[in-house]
Structure formats: structure tokens, C-alpha cells
Design brief:
alpha/beta, six-stranded mixed β-sheet, 25 helices, five-stranded antiparallel β-sheet, 715 residues, 25 strands, 20% strand
Length: 715
């Protein structure tokens, strides 16, 4: 939080950025209704709400201002603060005596000596959008009629505000902001900051007898990353953000710890100067400080109009990732010091300055409903339907909750008030549930027992995080994925039925599931009506569908898209059970005895064949004429049970063909090399798998050796 104080010869104070903004009563009224329902509540209910908010704000004020360990984000604090302020504006007769809306911060900790600020370190108001910025400018123009107004724009640094005292050019005291009236003496720690002048010197200026400089201590991004890496390497706790790291470093009782941290000080104002300086503007005073050795933030702008301020805001927002330090907006000040004096102060803030914050990264809103969406692979995903809220530059009304485990972790319920976080292009997410605001009728969320799309059973094996619909062949949500897989080259190999045609057929309601593929010949006229589907294309497609009916049991099993059943597992199932009926009716114990099938995969297979909708589609597929040769007596398989890997490019055959030849000999072909691998077939550009095989001293065959090996088996 940036503090901005400047007292010139006129003793004008420039104040800090605060956790509050001037939203209109209309907007805040809506938020009140969102959290608490009716706006015309009984007095005792209003007082209870005020007391609850006051206690929450006091708790978070203490964490932020006193302990320097923020427990919520600035934007979340803003929402709580404005909720209280809106209630006070609506019911002024009920305002509580200990309300924090007329205070600044928290009390200083006892472990450091307390110091009273001669010039209080007060607060800045916030604006969040251009309309609010223009309103800020209009109020200034109304109070300074017919005067030329320029604005000084600075980065709003996200660090720890401090005040530095220099007597006869020597640093004698460093004090934290504290509660704005009283801070903590951290002089010994401040003296360890490398870029901060301990003794003032200047070629062109007389050293003041007394100079009090206000500024921000923070940790630049590179230093923060380095510190966290060092902390992690030592097994110590890492810091959540640079602001916490800087605050924690300055508040160490041992100055040696502060000295070891990459802290930096950036000046942004003058609180006292004796004898009085002759400076007339904020912009001038910042650069005057640099002549004494102080650093200022890497961007400052002098703007001739409020429209130019908006342009600079947009420019800074774009440049934000490239800055050396973390910021969350910019500070806008009337540049002329005499005009500042004319404008004066409100109870908490100056009229002549405000913090123009970037779009909030977190906001509070209400969960109105939680729906379950079914993805193309059958995964059930809970989606929270929210009361629309503006966060991270966009209006958010839907947020994924990922899975039932995340719902349990957050303990989020329908009716809850939640914090929604979004920054940049990051997908919005729910970060916190405010149980303090939970209504009595909040609804606990449970995993559906059946698919919300097709009513098939929902399954979630023990140890799994994701729940899935078991109706893979039938479920409308999974149609495109199921059909795409079913017609693929390694499955039923139906050439010409690409995803674009599938979408057209779905649109015409000709494909409800994979079994409908074998009835497309009944809809020739409809097929001819599809764009770019001429007579020849239609006939080729029908012929390809007809040809696919003759397949193998292994291909058919793979084509069904059973979770966990790839090509190798499908082949193992075909070899083990020999007939499709035997596989359909297999018990769990029999499935688990199949090579390459573990307990979880066995559960998935059993669930698939028990789903009534899947059985219906399977019966239609077989009735359409899909068939394969009857099982033959098992032949000698010399590589039975061995694990092989094929990698690189083979000139005489593709890797798929090589895989099939090895599988025909009983080998299990894996995609990765391990200590259990029997042999690696390495073609050109074999890469890391070859390297790993050599390290593990596993046998390696080149292509010629592999062909000779196959030759002895006549494969």
C-alpha cells in the first residue's frame, strides 16, 4: 500500500492509498441486497450486520497494519469496508462509535518503540474506473474555477510505507506508518537498506537542517524471486508476495536479517523541510529528492489534463509486467502545492489526490446455483452460477469448481458469499468462502448419482478425483468424442467420417450414438444435402462403413472407448476372454487377472458393461452386422509377458506395424522405458528412450537387427 505524504513550506500533507473507494449509493445498495437480502431491515438486524463487519475489519486491519501479514486481498477488504460504509450511509442513526470508516490503521506493536508522527500519515481515496476518475477531476475543477490544473502521476507501489528523518543531513530515525498517528521505530533495520542514503549530499543544493521524507520500502521482483529460491533451498518458509517479504524483513528484531534481504526504498513525498524549500510542485519535489541520493519509482508523468491521466493509466497497465516492482495502480495528485493547500482535506484523505487502482483481482459475490456439466470424455464438472461481479477487468457470472473434492475443500454451498479471483487472462476461480455471511438456508452440494444429460450412473472409483458418466456410447454430451474415437484408424477405421461431417450429421439428427453410423445408408438423400457431400463422397462413406463391419475383437473393444482400455489392453482382453459375450459378463476377479488390467481399470470396464444405455447401443452395433473371425487355438507366443519399446523412425515399416508384429508374438509394447523393459527397438532419431535404455543396460535392436529377429518367427 503506497503512502504519499508531502508537507512543503505550506505544510501540505500528501496522503496514502487506502482500502476504500467511493462507489455510488446505488451500486453499494445492490451489494447490500446481494449479501443480506431486503434493504429495509429492522434496526437490530442492521446493527448486527454493522457489528459483524466492524469485527471483521478490525481483525484484518490488525493483520495488515500491525502484523504486516495480510489475511485477505486489498479488493476483498475494499468490499467489506464499502459494505459497512453503505450501511452507515443508509442508516446514519445506527453508526457505531468504534466504526473503522473514520480511522486509518492499527496500533503499533509493543516490541518496537512507538513514535508519534509530527505530520500524520493519512490515507488516499480510490477510484476504479474512468467515470470515477472524471468525477474526481470535476470536484477539483469546481473548487479551483478558472485555474489551470496539472496532474502528477506516480506508480502505486505495493510495499511498506515509512517515514525517514534527517537532521543536518544524517539519517536519525525510520518509522513505520502504524495507525497513521503513531508508528514503530525501525531505524536500525532501515539503515541496512542499500539504496537509501544514510548521509545526504548534493552538489547543487544546501542540505536542510531537518528533512522528513516519506516513501515505500519494497522488494523488487528479481530480489523477491531470489530470496524465495534461497528460502526454499534451505527448507525455510517462502513469502506469498514481495509486500509480505518486505514488511517481514523490516520488522525483524535482528537488523542482520533485514540486511540480508534485497530491500529498496523509493521516495514519493516530503513531510517536513526546515528551512522551508522553495519548491512549487509535486513533480519538482520528487526530482529535487533525487539530487540528495534518493531513488524514486521508475515511472512519473506530468499530465496537462485528466484525459492524459487516463492515457497514462492504460499505458502503465500494459507495461505492468515489465516493471521492476509490483504495483496495483497509480497515484494521481494535483501537481501545484498551492492548489493542494486550497483544496484541503476530508476526514480521511486529501481532496487533491487519489489512487487509481487496476481492476480488482478479487471480488465478493453470491453463489446462486451449482450446475454439473458433462464434458466430451464424460467428466462431470461443477460450475458455480454467480451473481454477476466485475473482477479482473471483466464481468464474471460463472466459475468452474473443478470437481467434488474442490467443493468439499472449500466447503462452498449454494447461497454462500465467495471471493472470486481473476488476473490478466487467468480463468476466474473461487478462492474463499465467507462463512461469516452464510445464510441459514445455504444448500450443501452433493455429487449427482446419475448423469444430468443421459441419466446413466455416475462413477468415481476410490482414489480418483474426477467423477464420470458411465454412458459413454449413449450420452449426448460425449457423442462427438465417442464417434471420433470409434471411427479412428486404430479402431473401426471408417475413412471419410471426419469431425466436420460428424457435426453436420449431429445437426441433422442423423447420429445419436455410434450405432447410428451403420444406418446412415438409409438417409442417402439427407447426406447428399450436406455441403460438399456429392454422390461419390456419399457412396465412398457408405462403402467404408460397410467395410468396417469386418473387424477384430480387439479393435472393436478398443473402439468402444472404455476408460483405461487402450490398444494393448484391448488386445489382452480379447486374448483372455476370446468372445465378446465372455467379456461383457466377466466378473471383477476375472478382469483383474487380465494382463495390463489393474483394479481401477477393471472397475471402469465392469461399470461400462453394466450401464443399460451402453448395452442398448452394443446390441444395435452387433445387430447391424459388426463381426470378427471366431477365436482360433492360441499359437506359440515366444515373447509372451515380455515388455518391449519401439522408438524412433523405422524405414521398412511404421511403428504401429512393428507394434502389431510384437504383439502377435505375445509381447506387451509400452510407451516408456523402465527396468522391466526386455528390449528397445530403436529407429532413426530415437532420442531419450534410447538414452535411458543404454543407461539401464537394456538390450537395443536397430531396424536391421529387428527385421532379422522377426524373420525367425515368419511374422
Amino acid at each position: 500500500m503506497q503512502v504519499a505524504d508531502d508537507v512543503s513550506a505550506y505544510h501540505i500533507s500528501c496522503l496514502i492509498q487506502v482500502r476504500y473507494t467511493k462507489f455510488s449509493e446505488r451500486i453499494m445498495g445492490r451489494f447490500t441486497a446481494l449479501l443480506y437480502g431486503e434493504t429495509s431491515m429492522q434496526s437490530h438486524s442492521i446493527i448486527e450486520q454493522m457489528r459483524q463487519l466492524i469485527q471483521l475489519l478490525a481483525q484484518h486491519n490488525h493483520a495488515y497494519y500491525v502484523m504486516d501479514q495480510p489475511s485477505i486481498s486489498d479488493s476483498e477488504y475494499d468490499h467489506l469496508f464499502h459494505q459497512l460504509k453503505a450501511l452507515e450511509q443508509q442508516y446514519p442513526e445506527l453508526v457505531q462509535s468504534d466504526t473503522p470508516t473514520n480511522k486509518v490503521g492499527g496500533q503499533a506493536l509493543a516490541k518496537f518503540e512507538s513514535v508519534t508522527h509530527v505530520v500524520p500519515m493519512l490515507s488516499l481515496g480510490n477510484v476504479f474506473k474512468q467515470d470515477d476518475l472524471l468525477a474526481f477531476a470535476r470536484r477539483i475543477e469546481e473548487r479551483l474555477p478558472n485555474q489551470k490544473i496539472q496532474y502528477e502521476v506516480e506508480l502505486k507501489l505495493d510495499g511498506l510505507a515509512i517515514s525517514l528523518w534527517y537532521e543536518q543531513g544524517v539519517l536519525v530515525r525510520g518509522v513505520t506508518r502504524g495507525d497513521g498517528e503513531t508508528g514503530e521505530d525501525i531505524t536500525q533495520n532501515v539503515k541496512t537498506i542499500r539504496n537509501l542514503p544514510k548521509v545526504l549530499s548534493s552538489k547543487n543544493n544546501v542540505i536542510p537542517q531537518l528533512l522528513e521524507v516519506r516513501g515505500e520500502v519494497l522488494m523488487p521482483k528479481l530480489g523477491f524471486e531470489k530470496l524465495n529460491a534461497e528460502q526454499a533451498a534451505k527448507g525455510d518458509k517462502t513469502f506469498a508476495n514481495p509486500r509480505n517479504a518486505a514488511a517481514g524483513s523490516l520488522r525483524q528484531l535482528d537488523p542482520a536479517i533485514a540486511a540480508s534481504r534485497p530491500l529498496a526504498f523509493y521516495a514519493y513525498g516530503i513531510a517536513q523541510c526546515e528551512p522551508a524549500h522553495s519548491l512549487t510542485t509535486m513533480h519538482e519535489s520528487l526530482h529535487w529528492l533525487t539530487q540528495f541520493g534518493f531513488e524514486i519509482a521508475e515511472r512519473q508523468y506530468l499530465c496537462a489534463s485528466i484525459e492524459e491521466v487516463q492515457q497514462r493509466y492504460e499505458q502503465i497497465q500494459q507495461q505492468r509486467p515489465d516493471l521492476q516492482v509490483e504495483i496495483d495502480g497509480m497515484v494521481v495528485k494535483v501537481d501545484d502545492l498551492k492548489q493542494q493547500q486550497q483544496l484541503g482535506f476530508l476526514s480521511r484523505e486529501p481532496r487533491w489526490a487519489t489512487a487509481y487502482k487496476f481492476p480488482a483481482q478479487a471480488a465478493l459475490t453470491k453463489v446462486e446455483q451449482i450446475d454439473w456439466q458433462v464434458g466430451r470424455t464424460g467428466t462431470l464438472t461443477p460450475v458455480a452460477r454467480l451473481a454477476p461481479v466485475f473482477v479482473g477487468g471483466v464481468t464474471v457470472s460463472n466459475v468452474t469448481l473443478h470437481n467434488i473434492g474442490e467443493i468439499h475443500r472449500l466447503d462452498v454451498r449454494v447461497g454462500d458469499t465467495v471471493s472470486v479471483y481473476r488476473t490478466g487472462d487467468v480463468i476466474p476461480k473461487v478462492e474463499k468462502v465467507w462463512v461469516e455471511f452464510r445464510p441459514a438456508d445455504a444448500v450443501v452440494v452433493h455429487l449427482p448419482q446419475s448423469c444430468p444429460v443421459c441419466d446413466s450412473p455416475v462413477v468415481m472409483p476410490e482414489g480418483e478425483a474426477l467423477a464420470r458418466c458411465s454412458g459413454g456410447l449413449y450420452c449426448a454430451a460425449q457423442r462427438i468424442e465417442a464417434i471420433r474415437h470409434f471411427v479412428s484408424r486404430k479402431a473401426m477405421d471408417i475413412e471419410g467420417l471426419g469431425e466436420r461431417w460428424v457435426e453436420s450429421l449431429l445437426h441433422l439428427n442423423l447420429l445419436k450414438d455410434v450405432a447410428d453410423i451403420y444406418h446412415l445408408h438409409e438417409h442417402r438423400d439427407a447426406l447428399l444435402g450436406i455441403e460438399k457431400m456429392g454422390e461419390k463422397s456419399v457412396q465412398n462413406l457408405i462403402d467404408a462403413i460397410e467395410a468396417s463391419k469386418k473387424t477384430t475383437l480387439a479393435r472393436f473393444i478398443y473402439a468402444l472407448g472404455i476408460r483405461g482400455v487402450g490398444e494393448t489392453t484391448a488386445r489382452m482382453l480379447a486374448q483372455t476372454f476370446q468372445t465378446f459375450n465372455a467379456l461383457q459378463t466377466a466378473e471383477m476377479d476375472a478382469l483383474k487377472k487380465t494382463p495390463d488390467v489393474g483394479e481401477i481399470t477393471a472397475e471402469w470396464i465392469a461399470d461400462f458393461f453394466q450401464a443399460s444405455h451402453n448395452i442398448e447401443v452394443l446390441n444395435r452395433l452387433l445387430a447391424a452386422g459388426i463381426h470378427w473371425d471366431a477365436p482360433t487355438a492360441p499359437t506359440r507366443q515366444p515373447l509372451n509377458g515380455e515388455s518391449w519399446v519401439v522408438t524412433g523412425t523405422l524405414e521398412s515399416m511404421g511403428r504401429d506395424e512393428a507394434t502389431q508384429k510384437l504383439q502377435a508374438l505375445g509381447a506387451r509394447v509400452s510407451g516408456s522405458v523402465s527396468s522391466k523393459t526386455k528390449c528397445v527397438v530403436a529407429g532413426e532419431k530415437a532420442g531419450s528412450k534410447l538414452d535411458k535404455a543404454q543407461k539401464l543396460d537394456i538390450r537395443v535392436m536397430n531396424e536391421q537387427e529387428f527385421l532379422e529377429f522377426l524373420g525367425q518367427f515368419e511374422v
